[in-house]
Amino acid sequence: MRASSRCRGVFIASSSSSSARASSITDASTRVDALSSPASSTNAIGFVRARGVRSASDTAGASASVASSGARAIALGRGARAIAPGRDVASAARGFASAAANAGNVYDIDDDAVATLLPEISSVKALTAAFTFANQTKGAAERGDGKRGAKTAARRLMARASDDALQEATTSHRRVDVRGSRGSGKSVALARLVMRARADGWVVAYVPDGLELTRLSYFSKSTKEGCDGLWETPDCAMRLLQHIANAANESVLKSVKVKGVTLKDENAPKKSRGKKSKDAADAPEADAKPKASAEMNLFDYAKAGSTDPEIAVDCALVVLNELRALAKNGDGKVMFVVDQYNALFGPSDMHEVTGPRSRKNIPAKSLRLARAVIETVDSACNEDARHVAVTAASHSVGVSKSNTEQSLPDELGSSTVVTVETPRFNTDEIATILREYKAAGIVKAVVDEQTVAAMKALTNGNPREIQSIASTLLR
Questions:
Q1: Extents of the domains making up the chain
Q2: What residues contact 82, with CB distance under 8 A and at least 6 apart?
Q3: Distance of CA 22 to the CA centre of its chain
Q4: What residues have CB less than 8 Å from 303, skipping those under 6 apart?
Q5: Segment-wise mean pLDDT, segments of 10 residues, the chain, 475 residues
């Protein structure tokens, strides 16, 4: 691996040498045999797939080898790995989240680990699309006991060295910007970082899709003091709170107490929607009114806000501020991760009526919640800040180039800011992913040196394009 850096505005990049790429490509039969060989360094856990696990000791050894690979997660073929006896979900999670020297290994992530470390996975479109693609083949599959059974969808990932660079950047800098070409895997890199950070004890507020904060919400002009010209978006706030108040962050958030929060009084009598009697018509109506709570833990408050649109925006802002304070006071490690961050600098899908037949778009930066998220990310550069903010801009969210440039860190001369590049696939990685697709039944053609070279020439190592061509030209 080779890493280069520039002082005063650090740029980190990781790639394999061309000689290393060529040396690992062998003839077709050798490459296919390597899929089932536990001794293969290219695919140390290749035998742990739908065919089953050979033994608990093999699984533990392979898991340790692959777990130490610590790089970007790329969704691949099928297969399901069981946790070896004596290993709980937390230890398995720490295993695949740790750093290692061997990038390019392929391994499975079990459902329990995903539920514990990435409960937002359904919102990570890049991962769900890749897993769906890799599990598209149907029919019976051979189980570990040699019998035939229904194929179980699984999540296979390939380790990349660029993930180590990303994780290292979060330990030495407070503001990290992930960059790369369209389809290079920035979203998957962020999801992988979130899993590794949570396994290491971080509290992570993860927004897997920046468009969630600018789309599909009721909206109204804010009446809060000092919020002139801003708009309230309660549905967006509830989605953000659902990402924060999850099982991965529960224990830490419950240790944080907030005072003076406002909740709805559920015990107050509600309005009657039926026909009133004469006596009832003269009596004043009582509706559910807000009440002040003396003290409440942050997790329960976030949970309450995630289901109540009347307090959602205020609750989200309180949670963001409390998380920043948690890190600042040294009571916990806090990381904010926002994918498609440039969406917060573009247009929203909301419009303000300006006349009988006219209206104008409401910019995302005029949304009170979106502005609060931007301020939280920018505050990571403050001298007294202790939280880490990681963002990535997307080229496919319909945001102009000028607005995207506004979302990039503007203090590249600062020691707190670093840029990490997500490279395209090299030749070795293309060969590995094609072998996985072949094992999953997606690719029918022989995966040899010529096929790999052709794929590299056609796609320039773009993972999204590799999927498209693998499912068509290599059938």
A1: 14-163+426-470, 174-271+280-415
A2: 53, 59, 110
A3: 32
A4: 241, 245
A5: 40 42 37 34 30 36 38 35 35 38 68 85 85 66 43 72 91 94 90 92 95 94 92 96 93 90 62 47 49 77 94 95 95 95 95 93 96 96 94 90 89 80 92 88 88 92 88 78
